[in-house]
């Protein structure tokens, strides 16, 4: 029997992906949770009395997030009011099933659940959008709508903050994709543990330093109730290649997942766009009309082609010679 390298008494059944240490299950749970607690404390993510909306999709990351946030809130008396917040994108056979998981999580963690849907907010489900535009660019609609839907749901909950289950692997993938796209503005922002300005609701990523493999192990060993099917509308091949590339790097050097080496002199490259309010829907936007309204307009008018300028584009154009326009063709 191999003994646990930490407690020296338990039987080692886990090889930690992050450090390659052999551990027993209780020690693995302990170090996993304590690292997240340390991230929360070091980055002063919360203060007592905060109302925190846990963005819950029913997937492994956000289910582990609900479990760990509940555990740490009790263990360390954070004094947080926790809520589960789910967005129903209207994807039959995918989101309806995962929402059933979140409904069970509500009982398991004894945290109130709020569900907001694209249908009630925008008058469109993703099923209807895909029926209209096909499987090209549908993820753009979904991403833009989800971002705003989470804000709107959190405001209904009177939440002070939103936490998401984005982990170190997700962030490393996004760094790579922004690098490949030459999107310097997003590159500077995507590794931040907190996003959002005074106007927007702050979004926190307590799993910024947590490896996906460890999240999967934690969920598996703790037999958490989560939904593990991939979205039926997002083959997302490009991100998939980035993911595989990073998995190969991780196999050689596990620390590749932590993208902390990226220090860009923000002032010299780009400015973070100023947040204001959309003149149509009144929600947070860095442009006079927000992306959600532009996309919604194009859907409702059945326009075949629209152009969306990335946030901060005007500023970037002055310093980065390549255009960062995204043309969306339906
Ligand atoms: N429909 C949704 N409702 C609420 N939150 C969501 C939803 N979709 C995604 N999120 C939030 O955004 C995070 C990242 O979402 P992503 O789509 O990348 O899924 P993921 O990495 O598979 O995470 P998960 O395992 O939690 O589904 C999730 O962990 C969750 O916090």
Could you characterize the architecture of this molecule?
The chain has 330 residues and is α/β, with parallel strands linked by helices. It folds into two domains: 1-42, no CATH class; 44-253, 3-Layer(aba) Sandwich (Rossmann fold), CATH 3.40.50.620. It is 45% helix and 13% strand. A six-stranded mixed β-sheet has the order 5-4-3-6-8-7. A two-stranded antiparallel ribbon has the order 1-2. Helix 2 (60-75) packs across helix 9 (212-221) and helix 7 (168-181) packs across helix 10 (237-252). The structure holds adenosine-5'-triphosphate (ATP).
CATH superfamily of the largest domain: HUPs
Number of strands: 12
Distance between the termini: 59 Å
Specify Rg, calculated over alpha carbons: 20 Å
Low-confidence runs of at least 5 consecutive residues: 309-330
Distinct small molecules: adenosine-5'-triphosphate
> Could you describe the largest sheet, including whether it forms a barrel?
6 strands, mixed
**Large-scale geometry:** globular
Name the strands of the widest sheet in spatial order: 5-4-3-6-8-7
Number of discrete helical segments: 13
Task: Determine the structural class based on helices, strands and strand pairing.
Answer: alpha/beta
In helices, the fraction of residues equals 40-55%
Number of domains: 2
Can you name the CATH architecture of the largest domain?
3-Layer(aba) Sandwich
User: Which band does the percent of strand residues land in?
Assistant: 5-15%
The overall average pLDDT, rounded, is: 86
Q: Strand-and-helix sequence, N→C?
A: EEHEHEHEHHHEHHEEHHHEEHEHE
CATH topology tier name of the largest domain:
Rossmann fold
What is the CATH domain class of the largest domain? Alpha Beta
EC number: 2.7.7.-
Organism: Planoprotostelium fungivorum
Pathway: tRNA modification; 5-methoxycarbonylmethyl-2-thiouridine-tRNA biosynthesis
Subcellular location: Cytoplasm
């Amino acid at each position: 029997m191999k003994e646990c390298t930490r407690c020296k008494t338990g039987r080692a059944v886990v090889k930690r992906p992050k450090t390659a240490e052999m551990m027993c299950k209780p020690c693995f749970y302990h170090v996993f949770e304590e690292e997240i607690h340390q991230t929360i404390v070091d980055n002063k993510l919360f203060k007592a009395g905060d109302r925190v909306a846990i963005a819950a999709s029913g997937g492994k990351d956000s289910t582990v997030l609900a479990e760990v946030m509940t555990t740490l809130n009790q263990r360390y008396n954070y004094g947080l009011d926790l809520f589960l917040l789910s967005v129903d994108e209207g994807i039959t056979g995918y989101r309806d099933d995962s929402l059933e998981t979140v409904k069970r999580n509500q009982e398991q963690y004894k945290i109130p659940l709020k569900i907001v849907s694209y249908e009630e907010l925008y008058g469109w489900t993703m099923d209807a959008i895909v029926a209209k535009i096909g499987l090209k660019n549908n993820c753009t609609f979904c991403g833009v709508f989800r971002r705003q839907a989470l804000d709107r749901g959190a405001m209904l909950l009177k939440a002070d903050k939103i936490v998401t289950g984005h982990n170190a692997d997700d962030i490393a993938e996004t760094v790579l994709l922004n690098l490949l796209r030459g999107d310097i503005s997003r590159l500077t922002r995507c590794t931040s543990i907190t996003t959002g300005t005074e106007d927007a609701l702050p979004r926190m990523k307590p799993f910024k330093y947590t490896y996906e493999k460890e999240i999967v192990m934690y969920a598996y060993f703790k037999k958490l109730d989560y939904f593990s099917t991939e979205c039926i509308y997002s083959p997302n091949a490009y991100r998939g290649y980035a993911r595989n590339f990073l998995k190969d790097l991780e196999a050689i050097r596990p620390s590749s997942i932590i993208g902390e080496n990226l220090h860009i002199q923000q002032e010299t490259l780009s400015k973070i766009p100023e947040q204001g309010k959309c003149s149509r829907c009144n929600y947070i936007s860095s442009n006079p009309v927000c992306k959600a309204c532009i996309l919604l307009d194009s859907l409702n008018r059945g326009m075949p082609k629209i152009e969306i300028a990335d946030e901060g584009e005007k500023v970037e154009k002055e310093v980065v010679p390549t255009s960062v326009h995204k043309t969306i063709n339906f």
